[in-house]
Amino acid sequence: MLVLGVILLLLGLFLKISILWTIGVILLVIGAVLFVMGSVGRPVGGRKHYW
Predict the structure, then answer these.
(1) How big is the chain by its Cα radius of gyration, in Å?
(2) How many CB atoms lie within 10 A of CB 4?
(3) Structural domain contains residue 22
(4) Does 51 map to a domain?
(5) Cβ-count burial of 44 within 10 angstroms (0-12 exposed, 13-18 middle, 19+ buried)?
């Protein structure tokens, strides 16, 4: 989810498409939160690790 967020963020920046920029930021934030929760050992969605 982090990689997809970065790709959409960059595409939105270079192509000047604001919806891609917005979706990229949202996916980047959600992916970062899930990554941090999974890395500290908290189960995310019933899984011990999220990746």
Answers:
(1) 13
(2) 13
(3) yes
(4) no
(5) middle
